[in-house]
Amino acid sequence: MEIRPDEAGVRVIVCAGEFDQETLGPLQEATDAALADRAVRRIALDVTGVEFADSTLLNLLLRLRRSGRLVLIGPAPHRLNRLFDLTGAGDLFQMVPSAEEARLL
Prior knowledge:
Structural class: alpha/beta
Strand order of the largest sheet: 1-2-3-4-5
Mean pLDDT: 97
Low-confidence stretches: none
Strand content: 25-35%
Number of helices: 4
Helix content: 25-40%
């Protein structure tokens, strides 16, 4: 995971690897910090490097979505798309092709 410097009130967090109950901690901490920072108007999660995701990541994404500040940077990899398809949650998330696009929202 990488946290890029904020630009235009957008914090980009690059997700890479596997996300489950055992490995979600650092991402959870990063997103909690972004939610607590009033200067961050949008949280952009780059999900292109997600290799595995289970309901733990999905629950985090749903919580972030409720904040009204989440946008995903994609395209989502096959495994994440599969999770979205199985749960019907894919249409709930706004996805853009780049961090630049996220900053324009």
